[in-house]
Amino acid sequence: MKISYMRRVLPSFSKKPTFASTCRAFHAEKVSADSRGLPVVHHSRYVCDLPPGHRFPMGKFPRVLHCLLKDQIVSEQQVWTPELVSEEVLNCVHTTEYVKNFVSGKVEEKAQRRTGFPWSKGLVRRCRYETGGTLLAAEVALERGMACSTAGGTHHAFPDRGSGFCLINDLAVTARYLRNSSSCPSSSSIAGGRKVLIVDLDVHQGDGTAFIFKDEPGVLTFSIHGEKNFPLHKQRSDLDVSLPDGTEDRQYLSTVEEHLPGLLDSFRPDLVLYDAGVDPHTEDDLGRLRLTDAGLYQRDLYVLKTVVARGIPIATVIGGGYSSDVDKLAVRHSIVHRAATQVWKECGM
Ligand SMILES: [Zn+2]
């Protein structure tokens, strides 16, 4: 296991975060009738059409919500619907040229191959709803303490290019937007907006996110990933832990437990964005690690409890997960919502 820290002078913390502080720039279409339940953010347009036989499991997004409803983990009244994120908001991370070309379809073949997706209007719409979903989850989390999207975690996208199934970096856009937003009168606990910790436990390093925030002390990036997995050329997060192929539950969990509390206590974020990628699972097509369902559940439970116990709001995204058995994969992705529901109930949120 390799651990590398990127040292940074962190700003001092002056005020406790508050769940009541919220800037609802991305109104939900429906305010939940069941205000007691865990907020789950979902949009039917998180999906788009792909050519037959495409290897990305696009069908997982609606199935995540479907299995949560079927198993009565959440009710329809708990579902919040995001809006399409504007180009202007995307520009807080991505270059104007990249956003303009992506939205209008001026994307070269080579660039499309690098992202893994053929360009389509549906793809653009999907990415904009997905990013809107992560933003809404963060805003609802700031108000309610916790919220979980049924998509998100496109952490390989850089300001001027997409990569590895990621076109728009939803985590980065959300973190930057919340920091920059001037429409949040009660938001700023330090000069320059909220402090955001991005906990990225997808098996692939969050290279785009790490690059975007490398010189931004208000956003701390923490990534635990497979040493030999994509991307080959890794960026420097504030804290990177790379794990060898075949890592199992116990070592994985002890790695999370070793680092997360210290990061929370030293950085003291106003919000945690949690990428709960399920591709460290032993049956994942791309993962190379050996976590079980129980291991993922324990991981998510630990992260959520550790953050919530400190009074810090947390928003979750599902991150990566790859399997030709899309139903099985969707259940795997729903682990984080199940763990969040348990924490929500146990903590009386
Ligand atoms: Zn991944």
Automatic annotation (TrEMBL):
Domain of life: Eukaryota
Pfam family, one: Hist_deacetyl
Xref: CDD domains: HDAC_classIV
PANTHER family cross-referenced by the UniProt entry: HISTONE DEACETYLASE 12 (PTHR10625:SF19), HISTONE DEACETYLASE HDAC1-RELATED (PTHR10625)
Residue ranges constituting the Histone deacetylase domain according to the UniProt record: 54-331
Protein keywords: Hydrolase
InterPro entries: HDAC_classIV, HDACs, His_deacetylse_dom, His_deacetylse_dom_sf, Ureohydrolase_dom_sf
GO molecular function, one term: histone deacetylase activity
This protein's name: Histone deacetylase 12
GO process terms (BP): epigenetic regulation of gene expression
Gene source species: Gadus morhua
